[in-house]
Design brief:
The protein contains 7 helices and 6 strands; from the N terminus they run E-E-E-H-E-H-E-H-H-H-H-E-H. By secondary structure, the chain is α/β, with parallel strands linked by helices. The longest helix is centred in the middle third of the chain and has 20 residues.
Length: 205
């Protein structure tokens, strides 16, 4: 493959009310934002209809913009377990849509994305949006920050794919469905530990 040939990255910030996305075109060291926006989900009340819609919309984005790779923000351990599980489902369906379209998938933790974009893993959504729009020279800022969050995922993936930053990130970068071995072990251990320490917060049945 010609390394200088243009290619596109689809970045997705999963959500249960709005799912942000951004398509970034890479040509050498030149970066061009192709589109960024959000998928409105808050009016869909049935959870399975919502998952179906996410799948269909992600497939449609891939068909329209032909990204070479798809990057997603991985779920984080929040205070509300049910919200966390719903977010995980949304992310999983978006990932399945990408894989069913024969696109390689990469996942990045929220703090890793913020670190790559702003230099701080504790940055706010507003700070991420400001740097994304400035870096990519986006004049018309999107209405919702979910859109710039989606583009931030794509930009983070681009940075992580470069030789210098990829070496710096090491095993913090999780690729594909199972991820790198060390990343997968770390995530599984964290979830098992969370469940064992919070048995009353897990709703069963």
């Amino acid at each position: 493959m010609n390394s200088s040939a243009p290619y596109r990255i689809l970045g997705i910030d999963p959500g249960t009310n709005y799912m942000g996305y951004g398509v970034l075109e890479v040509c050498g060291r030149s970066l061009t934002p192709i589109v960024l926006g959000d998928i409105d989900l808050h009016k869909i009340t049935d959870p399975y209809d919502k998952l179906r819609y996410i799948f269909e919309r992600v497939r449609a984005l891939i068909a329209e913009y032909s990204p070479r790779e798809v990057a997603l923000e991985s779920p984080f351990f929040g205070q509300n377990v049910q919200s966390m599980l719903k977010l995980g489902r949304a992310q999983g369906v978006a990932m399945a849509a990408a894989l069913s379209s024969n696109r390689p998938v990469a996942e990045y933790a929220p703090t890793r994305i913020k670190q790559a974009i702003t230099g701080s893993g504790a940055a706010s959504k507003q700070q991420v949006a400001a740097i994304v729009t400035r870096t990519l020279k986006i004049e018309d800022a999107p209405r919702r920050l979910d859109a710039t969050d989606g583009m931030a995922v794509a930009l983070c993936h681009y940075y992580a794919s470069s030789s210098v930053l990829n070496a710096a990130l090491g095993t913090s970068r999780i690729k594909g469905l199972g991820g790198e071995k060390s990343g997968r072990k770390r995530g599984t251990k964290s979830w098992e530990q969370f469940v064992s320490e919070n048995p009353k917060r897990i709703k069963r049945g």
